[in-house]
Amino acid sequence: MKEGCQMTFGENLKQARIKSQFTQEDVAKKCFVTRQTVSRWETDRTLPNLYLLKDLSELYNCSADELMQALVTPKQKSFFKINREYIQNMMKINTFWFFFFQFSFFIWLFCLWGLLFWGITYSVIQLYFNLTIIGIALFLFFIFLSVVLYFISLWTLRTIRIKKEVK
């Protein structure tokens, strides 16, 4: 820390990280960035975006205001004071929409899996009783669709797991 000067934003981040007993590598993994990115934040070469700032404040168990206190001039302080409530509300809204779309996506996947199993069953019955080119094509289409849907489901579950780990 510089003598007689206010701490910089990067120094605040570093101090909060050390106080929370994290390494740069730990923070990088939890925020899904590289260790070099965390280093750039701590040396004031770049700044994290608002969403990462929220995640960092939760990770370090302090408010975003505490992390940003060294960032600001008096003019900027008034800006943050005025807009603090707006930013907090926007973060709540984004969290709501994230869970809303995740829930909607799960419903969509559930319906698609149901349709898929019906389609495969129908195709197998068609193949068994009436072997035609259309029956074979329908069966292969539903098998292809099941593989694609499987990977979409895995991606969805991974996304939710990642979001929970960040918190």
From TrEMBL:
Residues spanning the membrane: 96-121, 127-157
Q: Which parts of the sequence belong to the HTH cro/C1-type domain?
A: 13-67
The record, for Pfam families, names: HTH_3 (PF01381)
Q: Could you cite one Gene Ontology molecular function of this protein?
A: DNA binding
Does the keyword Protein transport feature in the UniProt annotation? no
> Record keywords: Transmembrane helix included?
yes
Gene3D superfamilies given for it?
Answer: lambda repressor-like DNA-binding domains
Which UniProt keyword terms apply here? Answer: DNA-binding, Membrane, Transmembrane, Transmembrane helix
Name listed for the protein in its UniProt record: Helix-turn-helix domain-containing protein
